[in-house]
Design brief:
- With about 90 residues, the chain is α+β, with helices and mostly antiparallel strands.
- Helix content is about 60%, strand content about 25%.
- A two-stranded antiparallel ribbon has the order 1-2.
- The longest helix is centred in the N-terminal third of the chain and has 30 residues, at about 15-45.
- The chain is flat and about 50 Å long.
Length: about 90
């Protein structure tokens, strides 16, 4: 089995509204995931949650930047070409 694989996650052209919906949904899911992991790990294992807190902040900032980009581009009636790949590396 190959140790490195790539998969297409998003590959398309979107209107501003659709780009906003797709990207916001994806980022909200990631933020919610880290919030749930934080809560679970902190309550169950008293684990340090700094990594997740930092990641939530990064994702929230990215979401705001994307929202601003889309908002500023709406008046120009343009489409958004969005491509996103997932790269998976297997290691022991």
């Amino acid at each position: 089995m190959e140790n490195n694989q790539e998969f297409k996650l998003i590959d398309g052209t979107f209107s501003a509204e659709d780009a906003d919906r797709v990207l916001t949904t994806l980022l909200n899911y990631k933020i919610d995931y880290h919030n749930r992991e934080d809560f679970s790990n902190h309550i169950r294992f008293n684990k340090d949650i700094e990594h997740s807190k930092k990641r939530i902040q990064e994702l929230t900032e990215t979401k705001e930047q994307i929202k601003n980009l889309i908002k500023n581009s709406k008046s120009e009636d343009i489409n958004f070409v969005i491509k996103s790949n997932i790269s998976i590396e297997l290691e022991k």
